[in-house]
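It is worth pausing here to work through a concrete case rather than discussing structure prediction in the abstract. The textbook approach is simple: state the sequence, then state the predicted structure, then interpret. We follow exactly that order.
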Amino acid sequence: MDIATNVAVVPRLLKWDKQRIDKRVDELLNMVGLEPETYRNRYPSELSGGQQQRIGGVIRALAAEPSLILMDEPFSALDPISREQLQEELIRLQKEIKKSIVFVTHDMDEALKIADKIVLMKDGNIVQQASPEEILRHPANDFVKNFIGKKRLQQVAKVPSVKEIMVRKPITISPKRGGLAEAMKIMESKEVDTLLIVNDEDELQGYISIFDVLNEFEDESKRVKDIIQKFEHVVNPNMLLTEAINLINENNASYIPVVNDQNKLRGLLTRGSIVGHLSDVYPFNNNRGGREDGLLNNLYRTFR
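Step two, the predicted structure:
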């Protein structure tokens, strides 16, 4: 079977019409970066291992638009480079298609990298079910500890949580407060260009920037609540700093709000607070060599 026929197996079983099948095949090929005109009439033997897995291990499972997808060790036979690339591809696709994926693996690094929730099983029974962070911080028993590995646990023990680094009293304003002149006055007095918006219960509502205020300042009827911008990402106080740093870098953000499980504002993680922590904990001595110093200095330059 050529690639188009291969991808279309399940839609054909479901009696989709040809036009719908062809459209879906092209959509899926484009989704994984394979040009339909180039690849739809090729055969799997003409593809690299990574390309074959994109077809057989990923998009064929998506062809019929299922609500739940089961993937049983789809990348286990690949070389390390292809495997890492497909893990990244799967993370991206999951965000795009917004489908639940049950991903079976015996590779703890793979599970920690791609999962929102991990279920560890032994002899057919669930031993622990939690987020990657929770499993790393609080393994349920010795079986889980051994599965995670001593080295990973030691690494986690050295990494601080967000609550240890965050700014604890960010500048806020209530959506019920006065107009934009008042918001600008607060920004001026506190020397900030952004205010976080919280309600009477300290629940995070969003933010306003000086640019939002200036754009609407001439309209005296405008209130703070009328120009609120929503945050796309927040972090939990117990999140590992390394995870939060990745989120900040991926979104090119200067800061990210810290909220608890009830969406109540607990602080603000900024590039400055991260650099401040690194500077306090680790001396940046350019006369000392070593891999650790190089890594820390790279982090310092990243968040300076």
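Step three, interpretation. The mean pLDDT is 84. DSSP finds 16 helices and nine strands in the chain.
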